Amino acid sequence: MNAHAGFVPHHALVSAPSAAPARWMLVLHGIFGSGANWRTFIRRLAEAQAAEGAPPAAARPWGFILVDLRAHGMSQSPPAPHTIAAAAEDLLRLGDRLGLDIRGVMGHSFGGKVALAYLERRPTGIERGFILDADPSARPAGESGSESPGVLAMLRAIPQPIPSREAFLEAVHAAGFSRGIADWLAMNVRREGDGFRIRLDLDILNELLTDYFARDLWHVLEDPPAPAGPGVEERRIHVVLGGRSASISPASRDRFEALAARAPWLSVHVLPRAGHWLHVDDPEGLFDVMRAAL
C-alpha cells in the first residue's frame, strides 16, 4: 500500500498564460484563511516572470500551487490527527497526486510553520523556501497575532445562521477586531439555506492552533541543507518579516538575524511598513523580495 495514500487538500494551479512551468511552488495561507487569499498576489508574481525584460531565470519559470490547508477553504473533513505534521504530510500526498516537479514552498503565518514541517520532510529537491512572518518557536497560546485564540473564541460566539455578510462584519468589528481582519474572516462566510454560516470546522482549527503553538521548528532553518542533487539549485530560504508585526517576538527576530549572519542558505528581509499581513500592508515590498529571490 502506498504510504502516501489518503487525504489530499484542495488546490489551484497558477502560472502565466504563456508559460510552461518547469518547477512549482506550494503556497500556504494562514490560519482562518484559504489559498484564495494569495491568488491576486501570486498571479502577478507568475506573470512577472513572462514579462519583457524579465531576468534569465524566467527561462525556468515557476508555477504556483495555491493550497487550501486541511479544514480550510474547500479542504474539508480531513482525518485526524490535526497537527502541523499532518498538514505537511497532506502536501507530500498532493505532490504525489499532481506529479509536478515541486521545488519550492512559501507559507504565511500558520502556513509558514507548515512550510517548515514540509521542508523537514523534503531534505533534498527544494530550491526555494519563503517563510512569511511566521515564528518557528514554541510559545504561549495567549500571545497576540493573527493566530490568537481570541479570534477562534470570537467566531464561536457568533450565533449561526448569520442574517447577512454585513451582520458578520459588524459582529467581528464589535468584538474589537479591525475592518481588515473582519473582511479577511468574511471570506469564510457562505450562504447556506436560511442564512450565512462560517465555513470552518472550529474544533479542528482549535487542534491545529494548539499544535502550532506547541511546535518548535527552528532546527529546520538552523541545520545546513543537504547537498543539492543533479539539476537542483542549492537551497535558499528567505524569511520575510513585517516591521510592525506583533506575531514575531523580539527574541525570535534576534535569532533570525543571528542565523542569517552565519548561515549562507538563509536571508532575512524586513518590510518596515508592514504588519503581519505582508501582502496587504506592503504588497510592493513583498513582491520585490520574492521576484528577486526566484
What does this protein structure show overall?
The protein is of the alpha/beta class and 294 residues long. The protein has a single domain, classed as Rossmann fold (3-Layer(aba) Sandwich), CATH 3.40.50.1820. It has 11 helices and 9 strands. Strand 6 (189-192) and strand 7 form a beta hairpin. Helix 1 (39-49) packs across helix 11 (283-293) and helix 2 (84-98) crosses helix 3. The model has no long low-confidence stretch (mean pLDDT 91).
Briefly, what is this?
This protein is of the alpha/beta class and 294 residues long. It has helices at residues 39-49, 84-98, 110-121, 149-157, 165-174, 179-185, 202-214, 218-222, 250-262, 278-281, 283-293, and strands at residues 11-14, 23-28, 62-67, 102-108, 128-132, 189-192, 195-198, 236-242, 266-271. The model has no long low-confidence stretch (mean pLDDT 91).
Largest sheet: 7 strands, mixed
Number of separate helices: 11
Q: Tally the structural domains.
A: 1
Mean pLDDT: 91
Going across the biggest sheet, name each strand in turn: 1-3-2-4-5-8-9
Portion in strands = 15-25%
Distance between the termini: 37 Å
Radius of gyration from the alpha-carbon trace, in angstroms:
19 Å
Q: What is the architecture at the second tier of CATH?
A: 3-Layer(aba) Sandwich
CATH superfamily: Alpha/Beta hydrolase fold, catalytic domain
Low-confidence stretches: none
Helix share of residues?
25-40%
Q: Can you count the beta strands?
A: 9
The structure class reads alpha/beta
CATH class: Alpha Beta
**Strand/helix succession:** EEHEHEHEHHHEEHHEHEHH
Shape: globular
Reported by name, the CATH topology is Rossmann fold
